[in-house]
Amino acid sequence: MAFRGDRPRIGQVAQLAGVSATTVSHALNGRRPVSAETRRRIMDAIAELGYRPNVVARGLRAGRSLTIGLVIPDITNPFYPVLARGVQDVLGPAGYDEIITNTNGVRDLERAALDKMISRQVDGVAFAVFHTHADDLQPVIDAQIPVVRLGGRAAQTGVDLVHSDDEGGAREAVRHLIHNGYRRIAFICGPAAEGPAAERVAGYRAALAEAGIGPQQNMVVHTDFSRAGGAHGVEKLIRQRKRPDAVLCANDMMAIGALDAARERGLRVPDDLAVMGFDDIEAATLVTPQLTTIANPAREIGMACARLLLDRINGVAGPPKEIVIPTRLVRRQSA
Amino acid sequence: MAFRGDRPRIGQVAQLAGVSATTVSHALNGRRPVSAETRRRIMDAIAELGYRPNVVARGLRAGRSLTIGLVIPDITNPFYPVLARGVQDVLGPAGYDEIITNTNGVRDLERAALDKMISRQVDGVAFAVFHTHADDLQPVIDAQIPVVRLGGRAAQTGVDLVHSDDEGGAREAVRHLIHNGYRRIAFICGPAAEGPAAERVAGYRAALAEAGIGPQQNMVVHTDFSRAGGAHGVEKLIRQRKRPDAVLCANDMMAIGALDAARERGLRVPDDLAVMGFDDIEAATLVTPQLTTIANPAREIGMACARLLLDRINGVAGPPKEIVIPTRLVRRQSA
DNA sequence: GTGAAAGCGCTAACAG
DNA sequence: CTGTTAGCGCTTTCAC
To answer: Which fold has domain B10-53?
Structure first.
């Protein structure tokens, strides 16, 4: 069978340069000295033929594919492109490419994605899911492929973990509100406090406690992790006898919804109601008033993850690590 | 050398099932009939061993990698994740994965990305760049790898092209403004009318002409393709003696900047100044007033591209195609 | 500093 | 319907 494009192979380069394929290989990979003169002839031959090493063949032989798998819920969620960029900007220069798979947060798809990564013989996997199914990672671990989990609590499986300081960030948010004189501070959460949201609630509670503000009635409402959810949360809160004077939302989209509801109800932000978000997605600067929020450094998370993966791939051992990326308060107009 | 994880190979499956590796291969790929009984034994063996075919080996042998390359400026630009999703949603079920490379619009990186795709023996390439360098694609074409260009004008190289109807969209936008009574309609463009922007300007001019509105003085301003650029464009326009009553911007971020400037200057939108964008990024619904814009269907573009690629890979020949994806007017509040 | 030969895991002739 | 054999393009012993 005629193979695609009939590209030059290493043997042709060797022939043209008057050396063996072995020497060409070593000239290219630097695993063994090659004389300057030989190297020059090889490079000339490569240029003349337009030779490009076949990464697939190399991968098969070497047991490495120079590929890492990134398993995420949805690249369309603005957090992940930034994270992916961070990963790539570290891994790219090291010669790795990424295969990105979207799971929509569906467990079966997550499992299938991991299976695929094993089949593809990836050299590492970055796995970002809310619902942590530790055992779903087992096949990857068995295949001895380094895995880094993104987000979530410390893993039981002993895999590396990179996540932002959700609890600390929420604490800082609430401190900021308290500092600005707000006292009845609500938290608008998703249906359940799952994933990062759980830690954000924890930070919220901790900050209230440390300020001597006891838990207040009905100040944590559960809705959806969406714009409509945020709006709905505010609706719910202001129907109560004791209204909040500030709301912290589990993410920015919810906070934007909160802003919608406030405007709808004629509430001035931040005078009648302060609103804070979490994540600092680009949209936070698009709304009016601009959103005060906690930056969730997606890019740094991606980069830290990539570095960890590189270390593992290169056999820099050590016990499983947990890397916590600090968040950062971003003051704008809404609180 | 001990290979990673010592995963079961096809031979082990064959042995356990009491058949040859060939038969296992065929049972898996369905290229040749396998008796029901044999197939059952093979499947049992696969399940027992947890066997997963090695895609890299398969790729080397078959000359296909089941991978396609997506070369884009920046996954962080909100247009591309949606496009990538569209590509994946078509290609994924067909067994393909994507490698995404960001070029930042830098020509050397574009070339390097294409080289890499050839090295990786991808089965197809989707190439999205503003600055069309037809000859940069030549190595890929020589390697007989199907390429689909995304965006830009009809290619001279004879490669497939998928793009949205930028000219028609702009025409529709201007018609909408005219229909709503606006007559002094400006266009805020980037530094040069490059890429899609060129066609958007053309559509703008065409619509004015067809409405019998001759070209007006200083109604096309050049700034940056950014939020600040849009704001700057409005500033420039309203300093003129004859102000526009509407502006069409080359993209949504610019339109959002235009909204900023209007607010700053106390101009009511759309009463004093109508504002329209282009692309319908998510942010368009985030601003106040919400942006009336032209939806640039990234997802459809990605899906059409993927289908075209599949056709080419499967040898469904035919001459190079140009697929134009229609845009759609999205009426909201700003015009 | 260089080569010959073996083989990564799989699929596709060819042969029955 | 099934098996044997060769080989995809490369890297890596082992030998010189």
So the answer is: 434 Repressor (Amino-terminal Domain) (1.10.260)
